[in-house]
Design brief:
Order of helices and strands: EEEHEEEEHHEHEHEHEHEHHEHEHE
Number of strands: 15
Radius of gyration: 21 Å
Largest sheet: 7 strands, mixed
Number of domains: 2
Strand content: 25-35%
Number of helices: 11
CATH class of the largest domain: Alpha Beta
CATH architecture of the largest domain: Alpha-Beta Complex
Shape: globular
Distance between the termini: 22 Å
């Protein structure tokens, strides 16, 4: 009987710095034999998300932090290679919490949530099912619903070249809004405007980025899709109009910071003065709408109304560096790690 070897990243201690500096041990272990009620999932593609940095820490979240010594949490798409359960047959493609590892034993007693069996054949590449046609795209859709930009209104999107922001801005343009992005670097701003169709984009790395935001929003800000937080959100608050709506998707500026060093919002009073609404949300709370929303996104992809980018990093061993790219702002669109070829 062949004994499988599993490579995995285990958390050694809580990180103090950025993702690549996080104390993760890359280990190799034997895969335990399956028991009744279990299936073995081979990870094919791993989603890399800012929330991974949250899971490493003890930041309050909808899920508990990864325990010291445990495999790093992460969502992915895999294929069932062995099974002792009828609902996860051998050969099936599944989506769920694979973790940062080659193999995951699907056991309802220990999984954060059950694996979802995907259609056969897959309706799109696994990379897209984790990105524009997955939780990334659904997050962008929900954010635009919450921000609700109307025709002629100004919407600001932070981290505009990222996975969620790049899609959200395009969906807002479809509603007739004037969309202003904030992104890191002149090249990313060029991409946001020239390829994604935003009306303007401000380089957050420019020393005068605040003045540029003001110039790009001469009539104020009616809606905001917030992915960055920190100084960017604090300045956006100074520009919001009466009745503005802010959809809070993420606060990547604070994920790698010590809690005592996070950027406090000095302009929060603007929410009161402008009678604005700021709503945080988690995409997992809207699982009942995934099919509906992904169908809408797929239609837009098919007819060319929606464009997206992705970065595919080959090799599980490069997962920490892939996460680091997101925090450094060096990626465009969705970042995934291709762990293994699909031999189905």
């Amino acid at each position: 009987m062949t004994v499988l070897s599993n490579r995995a990243f285990r958390l050694r201690e809580r990180p103090a710095g950025l993702a690549e500096e996080a104390p993760l041990d890359f280990v190799e272990e034997e895969v335990a034999p399956l028991a009744n009620g279990q299936a073995l999932v081979r990870t094919l593609v791993l989603s890399v998300d800012p929330s991974s940095r949250v899971f490493m820490s003890d930041i309050r979240s909808d899920l508990p932090p990864v325990e010291i010594g445990e495999v790093m949490r992460g969502a992915g798409i895999g294929r069932v290679v062995d099974s002792r359960r009828d609902d996860l047959p051998i050969g099936a493609h599944v989506m769920g919490w694979t973790g940062w590892q080659d193999y995951r034993i699907a056991d309802d007693a220990v999984l954060e949530s059950p694996f979802t069996v995907l259609p056969d054949p897959l309706p799109a590449p696994p990379e897209d099912l984790l990105g524009v046609l997955g939780m990334t795209g659904v997050t962008a859709w929900l954010a635009v619903e919450i921000a609700a930009p109307g025709p002629g209104e100004t919407l600001v999107v932070s981290a505009a070249g990222g996975a969620v922001g790049s899609i959200a801005g395009q969906l807002a343009k479809e509603r007739g809004a004037r969309v202003v992005g904030v992104a890191g670097g002149a090249e990313k701003c060029r991409y946001v405007v020239e390829e994604l169709g935003f009306d303007a984009c401000v380089d957050r790395r420019a020393p005068d980025w605040r003045e540029r935001v003001d110039e790009a929003t001469p009539d104020g800000i009616d809606a905001d899709v917030e992915n960055a937080g920190g100084e960017i959100l604090d300045h956006v608050l100074t520009r919001i109009n009466t009745g503005a709506r802010l959809a809070l998707c993420g606060m990547i500026a604070d994920y790698s910071a010590d809690p005592s060093q996070r950027h406090g919002l000095r302009n929060l009073v603007e929410l009161v003065e402008q009678r604005a609404i700021a709503r945080g949300f988690l995409v997992t709370d809207h699982a009942d709408r995934f099919d509906e929303i992904t169908a809408e996104l797929a239609e837009r992809l098919a007819d060319g109304r929606l464009r997206h980018a992705r970065v595919v990093v080959d090799g599980l061993e490069h997962a920490p560096a892939a996460l680091e790219r997101i925090f450094r702002g060096d990626s465009r669109g969705k970042v995934v790690v291709r762990v293994a070829p699909d031999d189905s």
